[in-house]
Amino acid sequence: MNNIGTAYVLWLGCLLQLHGLQRLYNGKIFTGFLWLFTFGLMGFGQLIDLMLIPGMVEEHNANYRAKHGMLPPNLPHLQPVIQRVVAHEFAPPPMVTPNRDRLVVKLVKAAHTRNGKLSVTQGVMDTEASFAEVETALRGLVKTGYVDTYNDPDTG
């Protein structure tokens, strides 16, 4: 990367009859040698270069950045951001679903037809639900106080 100050110091080489060093420094080989052999185009080219040096340096630096895959100086260095997202699944409290309500109604009707007594097996046969579903529904009814559980003295 070239520096504007260095290019101006090389421009001062014209005082030692070394015209065009600033152009050679900025990669303008042909015009650098042209300035060197023609005494800076009789001094006029050397004077014009006083105004052109900042543009030459910027052009050289832009070409250098493009060639080497670098970002321009006014852009921030972007780094990839790695984010870790942890999703917590929210499980709402278990609500009584319509299917469970239907199962409870079927169980109560089955108990009513058997004079208020119902086993889990009878509940499965009458409702066609699984043993786990019937047992869960009956335990829920016991917790709410709607039914009581006990062992039948005759059948155990």
Automatic annotation (TrEMBL):
Pfam family, one: TM2
Signal peptide: none
UniProt entry keywords in alphabetical sequence: Membrane, Transmembrane, Transmembrane helix
An annotated GO cellular component: membrane
The keyword Nucleus belongs to this UniProt entry's keyword annotation: no
Membrane topology type: Multi-pass membrane protein
Domain called TM2: residue spans: 2-50
InterPro entries per record: TM2, TM2D1-3-like
Top-rank taxon: Bacteria
TM spans (from-to): 33-57
Record's keyword annotation contains Membrane: yes
Major place of residence: membrane
Subcellular location: Membrane
Protein name: NINE protein
The species this protein was found in: Oscillatoriales cyanobacterium SpSt-402
